[in-house]
Amino acid sequence: MEFTSMSFFSEVNCRFSISYKVNLEIRNALNEQVKSELNLPSKEEGFEYINLMVTTNSSTHAVEVKGPEFDRREKVITWNLWLPYEEITSAPSQEAPYIKFYFDALVILLERYGISEERLRSIQKEIEQKVIGNSEYKYIDIKFNYKPSDFDS
Predict the structure, then answer these.
(1) Helix (H, G, I), strand (E, B) or coil at 43
(2) Would you say 99 and 23 are in contact if contact means Cβ atoms under 8 Å apart?
């Protein structure tokens, strides 16, 4: 079972300013250190991926884990990790609270697969030490200023 991750923000202007590299570090750590330890329920056997979908909206103030959603054709189990919007976006640097709340969600989720909170907090600490304050993981907001007429033939 391989971990994948993605973000989905359905509310306009409601997103986290987090580099994809932060999510990649978390995903890689889970795949390297946790995936072989997962105790899958029988109904989840045969699936190849656990997709972690990070999401939020302006009314989310606490960590929630919703799911799972099963895609039998693609062999994907998707879990939605709802992270508190204001608590993350109001921080001077979003990486620290983002990682904290992400791992709070992972503790809730992966407990059902037999992964201990202690194990996950150890990985959290590794990620925090690698990411927080490291300019390599800084979010870069790229804005494109196009007018519709720019696309006329």
Answers:
(1) helix
(2) no
Evaluate the CA torsion angle 57, 61, 67, 73 in order and state its sign. positive
Q: Two tokens at 6?
A: 């993605």
Give the separation between CA 73 and CA 85, rounded to whole angstroms.
Answer: 33
Q: Checking DSSP bridges between strand 76-82 and strand 64-71, what pairing results, if any? A: antiparallel
How many angstroms separate the CA atoms of 23 and 16, rounded? 12
Residue type, 109: L
Q: Which of 24, 23, 43 is closest to 113 using CA atoms? A: 43
Residue 140, CA distances (Å) to 5, 13, 20, 55, 94 in order: 19, 16, 10, 19, 13
pTM: 0.90
pLDDT tens, residue by residue, 21-44: 999 999 999 999 999 999 999 999
Higher pLDDT, 153 or 92: 92
